[in-house]
């Protein structure tokens, strides 16, 4: 266990990639909510606007989750590279 924590503390690029992935995740979520909240709503077709809003928010959620998984994959690859080097 001590070796694992020492490798993790020495693998600064992997930690940076993880933090970058978390930042991108929340950035995409907040950007999606901002875009959807600034949409012009149709007063006469409120139910259609709700459906479109929910669909767009789901797409932003999937995009954010995909980005987080991609950054996690890259961080794990970098971590294993650092383990092999030590």
Number of strands: 0
Q: Percent of residues in beta strands?
A: under 5%
Low-confidence stretches: none
- CA-based gyration radius: 19 Å
On the 0 to 100 scale, the average pLDDT is 86
Number of helices: 3
Percent in helix? over 70%
- Give the structural class: mainly alpha
Q: What is the overall shape?
A: rod-shaped
Main beta-sheet annotation? none
**Count of the separate structural domains:** 1
Quaternary structure state of the chains depicted: single chain
Helix and strand pattern: HHH
Compute the separation of the termini in Å. Answer: 15 Å
Transmembrane segments: 12-32, 63-80
Keywords: Membrane, Transmembrane, Transmembrane helix
Chart the SSEs and their pairings:
Blueprint: H1 2-10, H2 12-37, H3 46-85
Helix pairs in contact: 2-3
Q: Short summary of the structure?
A:
This protein has three helices and no strands.
Give a structural overview.
Keywords: Membrane, Transmembrane, Transmembrane helix. With 86 residues, the protein is mainly alpha-helical. It has helices at residues 2-10, 12-37, 46-85. It starts with a helix and ends with a helix. The model has no long low-confidence stretch (mean pLDDT 86).
């Amino acid at each position: 266990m001590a070796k694992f924590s020492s490798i993790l503390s020495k693998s600064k690029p992997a930690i940076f990639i993880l933090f970058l992935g978390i930042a991108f995740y929340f950035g995409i979520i907040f950007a999606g909510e901002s875009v959807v909240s600034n949409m012009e709503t149709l007063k006469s077709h409120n139910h259609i606007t709700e459906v479109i809003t929910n669909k767009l928010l789901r797409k932003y959620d999937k995009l954010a989750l995909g980005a987080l998984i991609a950054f996690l994959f890259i961080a794990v690859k970098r971590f294993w590279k650092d383990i092999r080097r030590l």
